[in-house]
Write a structure and sequence with these properties.
With 469 residues, this protein is α/β, with parallel strands linked by helices. The chain has a domain at 17-302. Helices cover 23% and strands 35% of the residues. Strands 4, 5, 7, 8, 10, 11, 13, 14, 16, 17, 19, 21 and 23 form a 13-stranded mixed beta sheet that branches. A 10-stranded mixed beta sheet has the order 3-2-6-9-12-15-18-20-22-24. Helix 1 runs antiparallel to helix 2 (47-62) and helix 2 (47-62) packs antiparallel against helix 8. The protein starts with 5 loop residues before the first strand and ends with a strand.
């Protein structure tokens, strides 16, 4: 009998360690005005933020549950712990971080990454930033990279944050945007002045350690004219047997002729509901580049949106998802062309196995005045067995005849002909299938910095052994 191949599920053992939590640090589960006011008081919110939280809570209570994607009926938000006090305040010296938290991020390789390849690092543990630092030469260039809460209390940035906070993703957007507005905590603030090109990436890493908890960080990035930034976001959590929730928010403002590259590797555990919202506003001649790897969570709703607001604005989205047993990953992107001669490009890959479900949703909106605009959507899905599923749900709303819009989708299994061809050239069946799957994901890994491409390949779990099906 010929040797066949098994594509291993993602090896999350690197992420499944955890430390015991002091439950006295929990504000309690559930969602009401008492909890929201307590979070606001813990943080010393300015009055406008406290009012925004309470208004968001009102919207949350009035808004229907989202219905367009996979079922989230098993998620009971009333049982989610929305805020966890940290045992120490945010530090800029790694030696001052508590030992168990420090060990968590050492295990994940964060300090090493900072030393070797990053211009600055922020590390969030449960509800709070525990460490934030930026290289001296970066700060001297005028770049601001700090935790959002400190920036909100700094008179140099307070008004800028008030002007931009939850303006791209208002609490009325959907139920979990309202939830975020009510209980958000942690996250990063980045400001890049006019003409500054930061060639070394910044990174924020979000770690959820507590059982039955939620993480609601807010990332706000503002790029002025002719600037450049590569921002990297990493996420992980250990495995528990009760639901956890991630409902963060990312708001990106890309100025005239500026470029922002936003790379994400998400590796939540299979008890997590990942209901994250990301949105970018791109002005004249600006560009947003999304690179996304989604490998974890029980259920994901993740559709970064690019609003091309100025003439010649551009957006690119490159993504890969891996859905294994017990996972239903509903991902994609949305492009809104609000101005002439704008362009957008989506290129995604999805892999599903062991009954995993992968759904790609795309939306392209071209407004009446966006003449001369171009959009291309390409999605490919690879199913590694007969019990997995992959779907493509494209939507296009084109309101001018002077636009060039195209969509291409391919769904299939590993080709027997391709395997036979490679075996006829001397490769084993095992090596042939491994090469095909690696090649399928290659265009995404090339878009990531080297160390994150290596992590992505490790996450996909391309060790081949045993039998398939």
């Amino acid at each position: 009998m010929s040797e066949k191949t098994y594509v291993a599920d993602i090896d999350r053992s690197r992420y499944d360690f955890r430390f015991d939590e002091d439950e006295s640090s929990f504000l309690g589960s559930g969602l009401d005005s008492e909890i929201v006011n307590a979070i606001s008081q813990e943080k010393g919110d300015p009055e406008w933020m406290r009012q925004l939280r309470l208004h968001s809570l009102e919207i949350y209570n009035k808004t229907k549950m989202v219905e367009w994607g996979p079922s989230i009926d098993e998620l009971d938000v009333d049982r989610i712990i929305t805020y966890i006090r940290q045992k120490s305040r945010m530090n800029t010296d790694w030696n001052d971080v508590p030992d168990d938290i420090k060990q968590t991020f050492e295990n994940l390789g964060i300090p090493q990454a900072e030393r070797e390849s990053l211009a600055g690092v922020g590390a969030q543990y449960d509800s709070e930033l525990v460490y934030h630092n930026v290289r001296k030469e970066v700060a001297q260039s005028g770049v601001v990279y700090t935790d959002l809460e400190s920036a909100m209390h700094d008179e140099r940035y307070a008004e800028m944050i008030r002007t931009h906070f939850m303006k791209l993703v208002p609490p009325t957007d959907h139920k979990f945007a309202a939830l975020h507005g009510a209980v958000w905590s942690g996250g990063s603030f980045v400001y890049v002045p006019k003409g500054v090109r930061l060639e070394i990436p910044l990174q924020s890493y979000f770690r959820l350690n507590a059982k039955g908890a939620g993480q609601f960080e807010h990332t706000l990035i503002i790029l002025e004219e002719d600037s450049y930034l590569h921002f990297i976001e990493g996420c992980s959590a250990p495995k528990y047997y009760e639901a956890g929730l991630h409902a963060g928010c990312v708001e990106l403002f890309v100025g005239k002729n500026a470029t922002l590259r936003y790379s994400t590797i998400e590796n939540w555990s299979k008890n997590m509901y990942n209901l994250n919202t990301k949105r970018a506003l791109v002005e004249q001649g600006g560009k947003i580049e999304w690179v996304s790897g989604s490998f974890g969570s029980h259920v994901s709703y993740l559709y970064p949106m690019s609003i091309l607001n100025g003439e010649g604005a551009r957006a690119e989205f490159t993504g890969i998802t891996f859905a294994g047993e017990g996972q239903n990953l509903d991902t994609g992107a949305k492009m809104v062309h609000n101005a002439p001669n704008t362009s957008s490009f989506m290129n995604t890959k999805s892999i599903s196995k062991s009954g995993g479900i992968s759904t790609f949703r795309s939306a392209v909106v071209v407004k009446e005045n966006a003449h001369g605009s171009k959009s291309s959507v390409s999605c490919e899905s690879l199913m590694l067995d007969s019990i997995s599923r992959s779907d493509t749900v494209p939507a296009m709303d084109i309101r001018t005849k002077y636009a060039d819009v195209g969509h291409e989708a391919k769904i299939g299994r590993i080709s027997d002909e391709s395997v036979f061809y490679l075996m006829s050239r001397g490769m084993s069946e095992q090596d042939a299938k491994a090469m095909i799957v690696r090649g399928f994901a290659d265009n995404v890994s090339k878009e990531l910095p080297l160390e994150y491409a290596m992590e992505m390949n490790n996450l996909i779990g391309l060790e081949m052994h045993g039998s398939i099906g």
